[in-house]
């Protein structure tokens, strides 16, 4: 079992034991008040014990609500912390995207040459660079010619007459690739649409 799980389990057990101790103390106080009420059957004292019971019950309710609120707060902050860790490197990834684009362009141009050793070296570096970014959560968005245009997922930079009838209202060309970091889109793909 990892240390984090052990610590989490200890904290949970400690939270429950504290909660149980407080509830036991409150229940004991209620029992004491009830015993005093039975011993003192006079009308004035009986109404006073009822008031005390009511106050103890209110305090118990207040405590339970506060405890539940604190548990919700802990869950919410841990969820926010996880989100922060997932997207903490968004700024660095966004800065690396133009380098990746230039690498893709260079690779396309080098493929046109006859120098196979240069091509192999650049492909090796490109693959390593792409895999490193992918391992850090960067995923390319798969957008191709003929896909339906969606304004929520694509950025249309221009609209041209469709070369064929089936490309009307669809993507004609992808100018710049889009990327996601986790579930968040950090760069929308730039596309040309047909009209």
TrEMBL record:
It is found in: Cytoplasm. CDD domains: GrpE. Gene3D superfamilies: 3.90.20.20, Head domain of nucleotide exchange factor GrpE. Residues 25-47 have a biased composition (Acidic residues). GO terms for biological process: protein folding. Pfam families: GrpE (PF01025). SUPFAM superfamilies: Coiled-coil domain of nucleotide exchange factor GrpE, Head domain of nucleotide exchange factor GrpE. HAMAP family: GrpE. Participates actively in the response to hyperosmotic and heat shock by preventing the aggregation of stress-denatured proteins, in association with DnaK and GrpE. It is the nucleotide exchange factor for DnaK and may function as a thermosensor. Unfolded proteins bind initially to DnaJ; upon interaction with the DnaJ-bound protein, DnaK hydrolyzes its bound ATP, resulting in the formation of a stable complex. GrpE releases ADP from DnaK; ATP binding to DnaK triggers the release of the substrate protein, thus completing the reaction cycle. Homodimer. This is Protein GrpE.
């Amino acid at each position: 079992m990892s240390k984090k799980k052990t610590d989490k389990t200890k904290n949970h057990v400690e939270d429950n034991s504290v909660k149980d101790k407080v509830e036991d103390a409150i229940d004991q106080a209620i029992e004491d008040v009830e015993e005093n009420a039975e011993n003192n059957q006079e009308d004035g004292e009986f109404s006073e014990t009822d008031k005390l019971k009511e106050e103890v019950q209110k305090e118990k309710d207040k405590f339970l609500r506060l405890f539940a609120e604190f548990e919700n707060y802990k869950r919410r902050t841990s969820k926010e912390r996880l989100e922060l860790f997932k997207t903490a490197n968004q700024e660095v990834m966004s800065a690396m995207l133009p380098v990746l684009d230039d690498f893709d362009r260079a690779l396309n141009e080098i493929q046109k040459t006859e120098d196979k050793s240069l091509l192999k070296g650049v492909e090796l570096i490109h693959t390593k660079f792409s895999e490193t970014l992918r391992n850090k959560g960067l995923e390319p968005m798969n957008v191709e010619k003929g896909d339906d245009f969606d304004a929520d997922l694509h950025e249309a930079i221009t609209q041209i007459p469709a070369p064929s009838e089936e490309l009307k209202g669809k993507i004609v060309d992808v100018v710049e690739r889009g990327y996601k970091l986790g579930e968040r889109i950090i760069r929308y793909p730039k596309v040309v649409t047909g009209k």
